[in-house]
Amino acid sequence: MRSIVFLSCALAAGVAQASEGSPTELVRGFFSALDRGDFAGAIGRTVGSARDRTSDWVAELKRQSASKHVGLDVVTRKIEVADAGGGKVSAAFDLEIVARFLFVKRVVRRLTGEAHFLVDVPKRQITWIDGVLSR
Fold this sequence. Notes:
This protein is an alpha+beta fold.
């Protein structure tokens, strides 16, 4: 039974990625996965250094969440994605990290800034991410 659930999830993630044809759609899908709490889906859209950065960021979020004994959500308040051509995409974003404990939710951090992505168009994967946070 567990393998059927895993296979279903893997197929659903594959279908979602396959529908993301353009680099901008892939970057939007990356942020959408973060917003849904689908960290594996966000990491699955990346390779190489982009995967390392995303994995490290997600691991840090999970570590902080565990140390405070709260759940954390990533909420996308604003995302503006622009295609710069050649697989280069820039995204202006406004994210909130929301802590959940029982029935209480509180914004614990706001991340606002701009990120630049390099997308391997034929493979539909993000290969590089660089960002600047503005406070």
